[in-house]
Amino acid sequence: MQPRRVAVLGGGPGGLYAARLLKLAYPACEVQVHEQGEPDKTFGFGVGLAAGTQRNLEAADPDTLRDLVATGVRHDMTMRVRGRGVRVRNDHLIGVARTDLLAVLQRHAEKAGVRLEFGVRRAAAGLDADLVVAADGVSSATREAGSFGARIETGDGLFLWCGADFPLPDAVFTPVETEYGTFVAHAYPYSGGRSTFLIETDERTWRNAGFDATTAELEGEGVPPGASDEKSLRYLEKIFAGQLRGHGLIGNRTRWQRFRTVRCDRWAQGNVVLLGDAAHTAHFSVGSGTKLAMEDAIGLVAALRESPDPATAFARYEETRRPSVERLQELARRSRLWWESFPSRLGLPVERLMVAYMSRAGNVSLDRFAGTSPDAVATALRQYGGAPPDGDLVQWVLDRPLTHGNRSFPDRVSVPELEPLYVDLRNPWSPEADALIAGVRGGVLVTGPADRPAVLTRLDLAERIRLETGALTAVEAPRALSGDLAAGLVSGRTDLVQLTEEQV
């Protein structure tokens, strides 16, 4: 198809990138971006671009990627818990200042011939365009005004974004235990000599520290809409003083919030199509917001080029993009639940905790992590069961003996007779899960459906049982999922596993 005029609502990464790719694909088409904000003002700090995203951008538009990489900062990753740290290589990840990212994308969009309009709020219904690309963010007015079947799930934890005016040497994950509870920092360097600090906590800690009150104050009359929670920032820079190295925390519309996961039954209506956060979101702990938006842009333009009309193109765009988006949303959901329950794991040695972190969503196997970070995994394995093997890692994990209280087991698959606990739920931290755990009176064998998502959920519930009751736990699962079970054992999610010959 050959569009005559395309309007893009939203001048974030997804909207700008879609506009450039559209203009490159259709030089005769008039493409205009409408952004309600000003070009020199943006919300946020640093943005992460992982290796896979960089490969996709390289294939779609190498010129833009080259400038993004040139302005970015590469870094590894460190976790520090109770005075001990572990470092793993991750230098394919780059941190880019959001201001730099937008400047690069604006420059390349204009270079391609895209017109940019700033400072004016536009609505899809009032635009004279063949196609309207709605990239207007998580609070998309376009989505709310349409019939896209939107559903929004709000997380339990609270978080805020802030920054610091110095570059960390690595990305760092570190908790601080206070008189109110635990706060966890996710921090990483980005271009311009600065670092992002994302800090999260649970609701009880948030209320104990009085941050429910500071949040309410910001919602009062006379408070500028862009004001930051300065009381929270001053407290947080005090408790994270060791990580900040004498620097303060910088706010930019910094307020406590809960993560909203957006899902839509439909991504298009008439001549309007949703892109990026307007259509879907995935928790920040998998670093996916910018990735999904820019990859949506690639997928949308490819679908338009392959289709005779907008309706066919939008259907093809959704058909090709939805599976990968939903897969990432499921990984992000598991990751969000893991981070919201993170403080319960602080008794685990930091190396084993790093294994737990890497395997938390089922996306990175123990074998794969051992291949990329052999020193960290070797230490975790020694803590778990002695000198690690040269051969089959998974089988070695299953073969390690266990002492639990006054009971000893020759390996992790010799499961005694335990009370069976059938589990078929989606959230192992839900009220339904709470009720199951409240009924545990002794050792349990956690059973349920044979599919992989159900097994991963069982492992998480078994971890809660271990940590909250001290009971001996075993998880039943198909032998084909031994890799997941081995990661669960090293991560402290279960004591034993019972293998079945069921098909996954």
TrEMBL record:
SUPFAM superfamilies according to UniProt: FAD/NAD(P)-binding domain
Keyword Lipid metabolism set for record: no
Top-level taxon of origin: Bacteria
A molecular-function term among this protein's GO annotations: oxidoreductase activity
Name listed for the protein in its UniProt record: Oxidoreductase
InterPro entries recorded: FAD-bd, FAD/NAD-bd_sf, PheA/TfdB_FAD_monoxygenase
TM ranges: none
Pfam families per the UniProt record, alphabetical: FAD_binding_3
Keywords attached to this entry: NAD, Oxidoreductase
PANTHER family, A to Z: 3-(3-HYDROXY-PHENYL)PROPIONATE/3-HYDROXYCINNAMIC ACID HYDROXYLASE, BLR0106 PROTEIN
Annotated organism of origin: Amycolatopsis acidicola
Entry keyword Magnesium: no
Domain FAD-binding intervals: 45-329
